[in-house]
Amino acid sequence: MNQLLDRNETKMKEVFHYPVMHREIIELLDIKNKKIIVDCTAGLGSHALKIAEIIQPDSYYIGIDKDEETLKIVNDKLTKTNIKFSLVKGNFSDVDGILKKLGISKADVFLFDLGISMYQLTDPERGFSFMKEGPLDMRMDRESFISAYDLVNNLSEFELENIFRKFGEEKYARRVAHVLVEKRREEPISSTTQLTKVILSAMPHTVFKYKIHPATRIFQALRIAVNRELEALKAGIEKAINLLSSGGRIGVISFHSLEDRIVKHTFKEFDSRGILKILTKKPITPGKEELVENIASRSGKLRVAEKI
Ligand SMILES: C[S@@+](CC[C@H](N)C(=O)[O-])C[C@H]1O[C@@H](n2cnc3c(N)ncnc32)[C@H](O)[C@@H]1O
Description:
alpha/beta, DNA polymerase, domain 1, binds S-adenosylmethionine
């Protein structure tokens, strides 16, 4: 435990997570005038700190994250402010149960900032990065049972191909799945760099001309499958919409088309039922100022809606 805390303290100093589209979030979610704010992806608390700067003294911030390690960091940050807050380790797909336990039946804001934090991405031990040698893990919640190792070494070729195609939209899904299954017969694929090598060996040389690293889509696909991200997203935003107070707002920042599609369709469905009013006809993207500050925001898309 002490070792974990020491490691956390060192990393806290090193890792900064830019609060993507924080100006837009503050404005479009009308944070200043809202009382109960639920941040479903507290991460490293960067949005939380921006929220803490402007909320009213009687407002209440609730931060949820699957990752206990990062919640400790948020706790350290927020105790230095004077806002009223609670932090809960949990899946945002259980947001109804989480709020019920806190005695809350309705909230005025729900924020989702999807994906992983810089803390998770830059720690080789978490296995999210194809650039750094680490175990093939990719679990956001380190208490969950299935890791990327389990999927890569146990699923059938067909199942792997499906994951790569569905969650990575990977053109070479079949080739990669085939080579992976051949290679794992020799020895289990247990590290990130070992997997990257296998992926590269399965792809034609032309992929090196791509703007993104050729392993990006396969890693994304595995991460989505390990953490069941898309199911959680659909359940999470549907529940959040139901829990919103009248006039309350929901904002979702997504980073790839699979996520954005779910947000767009779910908002549309609730809008057509007269439950929600979409405030962003097209998704908001980061402005020039933000891209200078943080180029990693470039794929972010923000959609906001208001409960009727
Ligand atoms: C991009 S980061 C959020 C960063 C945060 N907004 C900040 O400003 O520091 C995404 C976070 O969401 C968490 N997360 C992803 N899916 C989740 C889920 N289904 N339930 C709870 N937390 C989730 C991840 O563990 C990660 O910490």
